[in-house]
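Exercise 7.
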Amino acid sequence: MGGMSLLSFELPSLETIELVPDGETLRVWLNRPESRNAHNQLMIREVGDLFQALNGQTQYRVVVLGGRGKSFCAGADRKEQPPAAANDREARYINQLGRRAARAIEDCEAVTIARVHGHAIGGGCCFATSCDFRISEASALWYVPEVELGVPLPWGATPRLIAEMGMSRARQFVMTSERIDGRKAAEWALAHEVCDGEGELDAAVERWVARLLDLPALSVQMAKHQLRGYAQITRLGDLSEFDGDASARSITSEDAQARFGSF
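Solution. The predicted structure, written as tokens, is:
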């Protein structure tokens, strides 16, 4: 019996993100192309709020996350100078924004696909690996520079990388800050498919979207819940709760100050 959906959803108006509805697919574009979609505090907050809000709707079954311009996301916007926090609790909340955004993508009820080209650096890599599926251009740069910069990898990314690529590769990727391209990302299980050029990338993304939409909606969602449930053993004793605290402390070290200044 038909009727009005109890889970009505209106697309929000966002400053750093462009939303393009396409039937049962929502295309989410990080939209700061002038800075290669480097994330500022506002973008991180908008990503988290959007993916949390998507849990309150059933209209969009697949969400494709991509970046406008030359890159998916080139990491943190080093030029940003956000206002000082009003107090310690606000500072701690701000330090946890990235973790909340990545977790919101990971826990989204819709199936998520990352369309990666150009750069997936730092937080950009975290955004991508939080998605269910990742399609990468062959020349895309995957890189987490945090250890090289003198700080630990935040945003709950370490347990996520261990779960996705295995401890051995995660150790290599994180501890040595190794830069890898899309082909190696596929070899290391960071990417599900690798493509030559953006034309092939778009075609591959459309193929994945079509396949997912061709499958029964409920069984796809329940399979995602099953997989997520079995994988959540990594959340037992979840130390990522303190990722923001560790980053805030370590960034004041002499090594971090010197390296951030020259990066």
